[in-house]
Design a protein that fits this description.
244 residues; nine-stranded mixed sheet; two-stranded antiparallel sheet; Rossmann fold; binds zinc ion
C-alpha cells in the first residue's frame, strides 16, 4: 500500500497538554496534532487523531475498522484506558492492523498485552541530557533515508534493561550521556499484525518536530502497514481420504 492510501490514526492520551503548562507550551494543540503533521509532511493524506477523553477513547469499532496503522502515545493515564478498547485494538492487530507505540507508551495496556512482559525500564529526566540514536540495521525499511545516527539535544533517558521479548528486528539503539544504552527502535510480528516501538518523545521536549524523528515515524508506519495475507484457518484438517 502506498503512503497516500494508508489510513492512519494517531492516538494520544492528551492529558499532560491540559494539566502541565510546560507541555502546553511545546504542544499547544496536543502531541497528536504534531505527530499527525509530521506524517502529512511525509505524504500521508489520510491521518486522523483520537484522544483518551473522546467517547470510547476515539477508538470505536468503526474507526479501527478504517485504520491500517494506529500510533499510540500515553503516559499518565494508562489505567484509564478501558479494557474493552484495549481488547478491540488487540484483536485488530491480530487481524493485521499495524501498531506504532511511542515513548512512554511502553507501559500502555495494549503494548504490555502484546509483549506479555512487564515492559519496565530505567529512566531519568534531566534538561541537559542528550540522546544519540544509532542505526544498527541500515538495510531495514525503517532506516530509509536516515543518517548514520540521530542526535537529539534534549530527551529523557530510558535505559536497559528494557523488559521486552527479544525484538524480531532491532533498527535503532540509543546512547545517553549517563552511559546508558537502550533498544530504541524495535519490530515484532503479532498474529498478522506488525508492531514497532520507537523510544523518543518525552512531552516536555520538541522531539516530534524533529525532521529525523518524523522520518523514523513515517517509515515505521509504512513498515507496519497491513500486508493483507489471508487469515489462516486453524483446527482439524480435511481427512486425507476426501482428497481423492
Ligand atoms: Zn517521558
Amino acid at each position: 500500500m502506498g503512503t497516500e492510501t494508508l489510513r492512519v490514526t494517531v492516538w494520544n492520551e492528551g492529558r499532560h497538554e491540559k494539566t502541565h503548562a510546560e507541555v502546553t507550551k511545546v504542544y499547544p494543540n496536543g502531541l497528536h496534532s504534531v505527530i499527525a503533521e509530521g506524517l502529512q509532511a511525509h505524504g500521508y493524506t489520510q491521518v486522523r487523531t483520537a484522544t483518551l477523553d473522546d467517547p470510547e477513547h476515539g477508538l470505536t469499532e468503526a474507526v479501527l475498522a478504517e485504520t491500517d496503522v494506529l500510533l499510540w502515545w500515553g503516559h499518565m493515564a494508562h489505567g484509564e484506558v478501558q479494557d474493552a478498547v484495549v481488547e478491540r485494538v488487540y484483536r485488530r492487530v491480530m487481524d493485521g492492523m499495524g501498531l506504532v507505540v511511542l515513548h512512554s507508551g511502553h507501559f500502555s495496556k495494549i503494548f504490555k498485552r502484546l509483549m506479555g512482559t512487564s515492559c519496565d525500564l530505567k529512566w531519568r529526566e534531566h534538561d541537559q541530557e542528550n540522546e544519540r540514536l544509532w542505526v544498527v540495521a541500515p538495510a531495514h525499511p525503517i532506516a530509509a533515508g536516515l543518517p548514520e545516527y540521530i542526535d537529539l539535544a534534549h530527551e529523557e533517558m530510558y535505559g536497559e534493561h528494557f523488559d521486552i521479548p527479544t525484538p524480531d528486528e532491532l533498527v535503532l539503539v540509543s546512547w545517553f550521556k549517563g552511559g546508558e544504552v537502550f533498544r530504541s527502535g524495535c519490530c515484532w510480528q503479532r498474529g498478522r499484525g506488525r508492531v514497532f516501538y520507537f523510544r523518543p518523545g518525552h512531552e516536555t521536549f520538541p522531539t516530534y518536530y524533529d525532521a529525523q524523528v518524523r522520518r523514523v515515524i513515517a517509515n515505521g508506519v509504512k513498515w507496519a502497514a497491513p500486508v493483507n495475507a489471508a487469515a489462516p484457518t486453524y483446527g482439524n484438517r480435511i481427512p486425507l481420504e476426501s482428497l481423492d
